[in-house]
Amino acid sequence: MAMTFDDAPVPEDDLDGHTMEELGAYLDRGRTPRDPAIEGSAACRLALSGMQRLRELSWDAMQQRADAEPDRDSTWISGLLETIRSEVRSGRDVPVEHPDPRLRLTITEAAVRGLVRRTGDTMGGLVMGRCTLDGDLAVPGSPIRVEVTASIAYGLPTDATADRLRARLEDVLARHTHLVINRIDVVFDDVHVP
Q1: Rounded-to-integer distance, Cα 176 and Cα 118, Å
Q2: % of the chain surpassing 90 pLDDT
């Protein structure tokens, strides 16, 4: 049974007692003075990373879209912020193989989603949206389907860009996890001005 957390509201305690507004203000200050409670929280660091990626978008392009379609643009940004909020949930544990059978190592589903998001965001021409991992993550060798959504820069060829993203995701997931990926679905659900 697949479990996704993208549509569920994220309780404030998933941010170790901090709110998205607090994290936004902290990011506005350039993360200074350093707040050990925020910096020591994996959930807060994931949220800050997502918020930073959102800010790295071309504000001019978003402003042009906001002027042309104010309701659509605010909905898009709100949706992206909600996706970032949902990704701070640790989710399921993903086993990591180790030669010593006495050790049980895991990474969180949120860490895998963050890896997928960062891979797409650094490819150029894409702004990653949702990432869903469908399958039994806790059972080594189980086939996993990855579905990602993204906004693509106007003018990029969709088929070639999707193929390039799939190849990059296959490579990074093979290097950093022991997941058996049987399919990666890429959905471009928006277009932005590069």
Answers
A1: 13
A2: 29
